[in-house]
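fold-stage: in
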Amino acid sequence: MSAVTFPKTLADPKGVSVKAAGTPAKGFFARVLDAIIAARSAQAEREIARYLNGFERDPR
């Protein structure tokens, strides 16, 4: 096993802004997939509501 160590000046240089740690922005295909999932979920809810209304029940 080997380990690489860096001096403190290389690991944390002064004057360099570090981006706050957080979740990175979603990519294009992840946003497209999320939109497809949301649209299909809304369609399923509409279908269920339509089915329940056929039997005169409140879907809520």
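fold-stage: in (second)
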Amino acid sequence: MPPRLSARKFVLAFLVVIGVTVLVGTKYNLSHLVNKSAQPLVQVFKNELGAQTQRPEEQEEFLDNNIFEEPEKTVKPPERPWFLPDGTIYPTKSKGPPRLFPDQADGDRIYDQLMYMPDDYQGYDSPEKTILLYNGFSGWGQKKGSAAFHECPISRCTLTADRSRASDADAILFKDRVVQPPVDRPMKQVWILYHLECPYHTQSVKIPDSINWTSTYRRDSDIVAPYEYWMYYDPECKALCCYYYFLL
């Protein structure tokens, strides 16, 4: 029966291999082998041997070219808007009429709407707006109250699914289908229809002239709500290099 290596000896051998690798890598600077532009190991030895036999002025030049290299300058990353990770740019009060709807704006309305703040917004001194989710909280991933808006610059909003609030809610948000509330509609109440899918996969609106705002994947919606949103936050970066590897 062949001899077996005990667990203690195996660990000891493993540590020895690691130690030797670190020592060799430290002495001969094996990082040159990893760099794509590195010289062969034999050439590294020749350079070190040549540096020892060179004249003082040649050694100084050798050291300047191989050791005392200036570190790369670090570029401060650009700031990001508040709705991106680590965002620090917050909206300021807008001046003049808002340009947020399809017939008003010609730029990126998703960004403009997320960065909009009314000129009369006074924080906690502003009246709270109630949004009624008429089809319930299912599918929204949110809870009752104002917790969903705590990180929003405009935080004076609250969510409810209580249909008895249909008579005094500031807005009613319908998801996929519209149901007529059994109460009279206030004059200033806004009805919003949210559709994630195309009309072929959703119910038709059976209450004509009832919707004030639409929120769909279409760019001409009042509130554009696509599946995902790609935004460049670094003006120096306009493309991402991708490498594809195929197994033949």
